[in-house]
Task: structure prediction
Amino acid sequence: MTATDPALTALSQGWCALSLLHGRIEARVERALQSGHDLSVREYSLLDVLSRQHDGDGGHLQMKQVADAVVLSQSATTRLVTRLEDRGLLERYLCPTDRRGIYTNVTPAGLTLLEQARPTNDSALRRALDEAAEDPELAPLVRAVEDLKAPVPGRPTPA
Result:
């Protein structure tokens, strides 16, 4: 393949469209969460991911898993956790079976803020997708996003 190969050009255009859709969505949601709840998209995502973990075997996420879920490096995730811990929204403690492991839990204040912010997040996401659906280049991507189903933990993902 060469740089002027039509397949490569189409792939590049598709990637650009996907990046554009992501940027528009993130900007819309960021503005709504910041103005309504003093939360960034990353802070909201971290609270959301951590609120879904549970006590018991396999219930807590390692920092690498958390970093992957919020699409940040481990060091950036640690800084984000520290920032939310300083605000009283998260707490850290040592793993009772492995003193090297550190768990992070959402505090009651963090859960309250997350529940208050969830409708804002969902509404901003819906508006961003509706606006993007009006753009002929983005409409197929919006349909694909709307058709996606989140995997259910413990249930095999269809091949």
About this structure: The mean pLDDT is 87. The first strand starts at residue 90 and ends at 94. The longest helix spans residues 6-37. The chain has six helices and two strands.
